[in-house]
Design a protein that fits this description.
This protein has about 350 residues and is an alpha/beta fold. It folds into two domains: about 1-170 and about 340-350, 3-Layer(aba) Sandwich (Rossmann fold), CATH 3.40.50; about 185-325, Glycogen Phosphorylase B (Rossmann fold, 3-Layer(aba) Sandwich), CATH 3.40.50. It is built from 16 helices and 13 strands.
Length: about 350
């Protein structure tokens, strides 16, 4: 069986790594197409090195652009690769423009399409990611869901065939690479951080980066707390803050994007995580670290319902209250995201 995997953004490198290992263990042929949506070292190449996975067979080098421009160029490049390589099945991950482009190319060429992380819904159609995931699900032949809520979402949309509850491949990745991160990472020493004595934040969603008011509100809230806040900054966020002329508070330590292993260590040892990233919400949950989501909604509703995640949006008062909240759960979080073997289940289902 020849499998084409489409990746393009930092979270997809993580989601795909355990699946690629399971594909190789099963003896199947995989060729990976990197769209180049994330393209600098800190957002791309370092992940292939750390996760010890092969460099993509094809790198389209698309880079930045408007949604239409970026998706259109990806679609053209992916279609050309499919015609040349003739895969039997296409794997796409998550909800990026790379995901949608891969899904459309497969659908137009009548290649079987499998969506890893199918069924997620924020129910916010202002998010580009929401359109990407809905359209991809409705193109897919196989839908690999990380949670029961995702299965239920698909059922409400009339999608019942080809739907499989397998668990979350990001949980697989944390289990596979968590110990390695503790052994190799020196990030706490290099930043002179003590465990549970700092906060960790990231911002990259359009909800925040495209709205100077939201960015200003969040950084204003950070200025009013005493904690040191570590901020690995996304290139787009850095440019948005600079363009808006927003000052970075003194207690916010801005650093370049870090690799996966360093990020796992920063997450595990933070007192609190503040993010608009879906992946970091889950990783906070896996590590039993309280999380404030800097959006008004989340696809990962289980983290909220269990009490480990609080939706605060960009309202300074709610952010500050969340930072100083003391009644976080002290129990072991329920296991909503599978048993750590989602990747193997995906490969078994592809085999069938």
């Amino acid at each position: 069986m020849k499998i084409a995997s489409i990746v393009g953004a930092r979270p997809q490198f993580i989601k795909s790594a355990p699946v690629s290992k399971a594909i190789a263990a099963a003896g199947y042929q995989e060729f990976q197409i990197h769209t180049g949506q994330h393209y600098d070292y800190g957002m791309s190449k370092v992940f292939f090195e750390e996760l010890e996975i092969a460099e993509p067979a094809i790198n389209l080098g698309i880079g930045s652009g408007t949604h239409a421009e970026q998706t259109g160029r990806m679609l053209m490049g992916i279609e050309t690769a499919f015609i040349s390589q003739k895969p039997e099945v296409v794997l796409v991950y998550g909800d990026t423009n790379s995901t949608l482009a891969g899904a459309l190319a497969a659908a137009k060429l009548n290649i079987r399409l499998a969506h890893v992380e199918a069924g997620l819904r924020s129910f916010n159609r202002r998010m580009p990611e929401e359109h990407n995931r809905v359209l991809t699900d409705h193109c897919s032949d196989l839908l690999f869901c990380p949670t029961q809520a995702a299965v239920d979402n698909l059922s409400r949309e009339g999608i019942d065939e080809g739907v499989h509850l397998v668990g979350d491949t990001m949980y697989d990745a944390v289990l596979q690479f968590g110990e390695l991160a503790l052994q190799r990472s020196k990030i706490l020493q290099s930043l002179k951080l003590e465990p549970k004595k700092y906060l960790l934040t990231t911002l990259h969603r359009a909800y925040n980066t495209d709205d100077p008011g939201n960015l200003n509100n969040i950084l204003t809230a950070y200025q009013k707390v005493e904690d040191t806040i570590i901020f690995p900054i996304h290139p787009r966020t850095k440019q948005a803050i600079k363009t808006a002329g927003i000052a970075i508070p003194r207690n916010v330590h801005v650093i370049d994007p870090v690799g996966y292993l360093d990020m796992l260590v920063l997450e595990k040892n933070a007192r609190l995580i503040l993010t608009d990233s879906g992946g970091m919400q889950k990783e906070a949950y896996f590590f039993r670290v309280p999380c404030l989501t800097l959006r008004p909604e989340t696809e990962w509703i289980e983290t909220v319902e269990s009490g480990w995640n609080l939706l605060v949006g960009s309202e300074p008062g709610r952010i500050i209250d969340g930072i100083y909240r003391h009644d976080w759960p002290d129990n072991q979080p329920p296991s909503f995201y599978g048993d750590g073997h989602a990747s193997e289940k995906i490969v078994q289902l592809l085999d069938q």
